[in-house]
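Replying to the earlier thread about multi-chain prediction with a worked example.

Input:
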Amino acid sequence: MPGPDGMAVVLFDSVQAAIQAEHAARAEGIAAKLIPVPRHLSTDCGMALRIPRSEELQVRALLERLGIAYRAVRAL
Amino acid sequence: MIYLDNAASGWPKPPEILEAMAHFMREVGANPGRSGHRLAVEAARIVYGTREALATLLGISDPLRIVFGANATEALNLALIGLLRRGDHVITSSMEHNSVVRPLRALLRRGVELSVVHCTPQGLLNPREIEAVIRPNTRLIALIHASNVIGTLLPIAEVGRIARRYGLLFLVDAAQTAGAVPIDVEADAIDLLAFTGHKALMGPQGTGGLYIGPRVALDELEPILRGGTGSHSESEEQPGFLPDRYESGTLNGVGLAGLGAGVRYLLEAGVQRVREHELGLTRRLLDGLARIPRVIVYGTKKAEQQVATVSFNVEGMEPSEVGLRLDEEHSILCRVGLHCSPGAHRTIGTFPEGTVRWSLGYLNTVAEVDAALAALASLVESTPE
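Result:
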């Protein structure tokens, strides 16, 4: 379900993969931003990539095309 | 002062490297890969930028296949000790540095089998001799890319093709070549590439790493260190993915900031241009040394077959005496002795006395080479045979 602000987060195993994804997404003009993983989504201490919910499909396709592994996409 | 010890540590560094490190210390400083605040994110971005620059330089398609550590020695230990098990056979050359030889000696005591292929006294390796010692249990070929003693380049692309043909993994020690000679891990069929940051890559000491190619099964490459990675913190087991599986503990963020600046400096200059400059210096050095009486030069004496590292001796003088007098009387800094490579010195016939080694870098100049040659000529002339 879309969150109130229409944002989603992409969760990654590796912080360096999150950085790689941010870099790739921004190069495609997607307003992606790294944030700490929200507590309700994970107990992890890592980072997540916040993206507009409307860009989820585009981001998923981009990550798959570049072979960047991600764990899940969750609504904020 | 003339610094001719770049094979031990590259110096001086271009100002961009110092600026990147000062920026990290002053403005960033946080832990790359821990926390999620802006400075931690910025630190992680800087580390990723270094990975990306190295990937571009070395022909690596996925930057996350580079894992960082303190130096090439650590990377070589990870590759050798992480991969080889009792009953495995490994092939190496007689020109290797102790960073390969000593882990292999320790592995021999754990039941790993070893074949050492002998190089010529000029340091040349015949790839067919590698092929001739392959056994059914051969797992890995481990080769130095260029000798740290005499600079001779080994034929890694040919050996890489042999490794692929027999389904073996191929580990290259690029401590002396990454940044000085074009390297393409895919074209050269390299599965594991160990590099150091502080030599030709222009970075600071305390940086280095290992490229881990897609033919290496991660569950067969055991980490040497285990610990905090900033990922999967709920689990007490080491993560299985790259780069975290092999990067436990806080990375050398400031060092990697400097290394990234060093690699970007090289990408801008172009490694081919670096190579051409060093070839010119090496030719001039070899020509000049050949004209000084009583100087014996080791290696192929052909610049195009080596990196900018030249070993020599002066008849009637100990290497240590030559080195001390070059430093004290002429302010020329170089390294004498065995250069952590007793096997290489045995191969070229200079064990145990060693050699005088002059190792040049991209920032050395023709004028420095000429001045060093003139100093050596006057030193030889003033010393009775």
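The interface with chain A takes residues 32-37, 40-41, 44-45, 47-48, 51-52, 62-64, 229-234, 239, 241-244 of chain B (CB under 8 Å).

Feel free to reuse this layout for your own posts.
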